[in-house]
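request received
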Amino acid sequence: MSPRILLLGGTSEALRLARCLGPASIYSLAGLGRVPDDLPCRLRVGGFGGAEKLAEFIAAEGIELLLDLTHPYAAQISANAARAAALSGVACWALRRLGWQAGAGDDWREVGDWAELIAVLAPFQRPLFTLGREPLEHLHEIPPQQQWTVRCLQSQPAVPRAEIIGARGPFELDEERALFARLHTDVLISKNSGSQATEPKLQVARELGLPVLLLRRPSLPPVAREFASLDALWQVLQEAGILPE
Ligand code: NAP
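response:
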């Protein structure tokens, strides 16, 4: 019989896997994004209340395998997953998606935090932010020479010197080209998510010779098994009889 799985999600890979889990397994979401209503497994939404509470949940539900397929920048839940697995004696397997790598002609600069990002941005006029909602907290600090565009999941009304675009990937190359052209973007800001769905913007920056500022990845804890791709994890789950061939 397949082990009872707790799958921590919030990524496209996690959703793909959740669609193949049996009714005894549980798909868990923080609840910030879209919540599917057509899964064959159970669904729970919202935080657990920290690592200890997650460990209690694992014990109470008789979970036998914890799968961490959360986003590479969701460092808190990954830390909680590793700790809860240790506390409960259940194995944690994690998808640790590889980051994007700069190629010939790329001008990528890594920044450690918001303060460093703002300092590096000073010489630019038309930044395009594609790293989530954080810039929305700083709209009152836009330097007078800059016009910002913030693309994140939820749109909201424009404010002086900032346009906020609500959009969800995947993004096509041609639509990204059109966006950069309309905005006269002179610098792109992104997390290094490593996701194919959001990669075309990097191609456009390359074509236009634009710099890309990448927020440094958080460090994530080691767990029992780590996989660089969903395919690699999928294969092991199939070999273990957890997923059908
Ligand atoms: P985070 O800082 O690592 O987690 C904050 C808290 O949210 C966690 O401590 C946990 O609450 C709860 N949480 C997060 N993921 C959960 C899950 N799958 N199931 C149940 N509770 C969860 O995470 P975040 O960066 O805010 O991201 C939230 C979610 O969005 C994650 O699931 C992630 O996969 C997804 N996401 C994040 C990003 C990103 O850039 N950070 C991008 C795309 C998708 P408790 O401590 O109360 O358990």
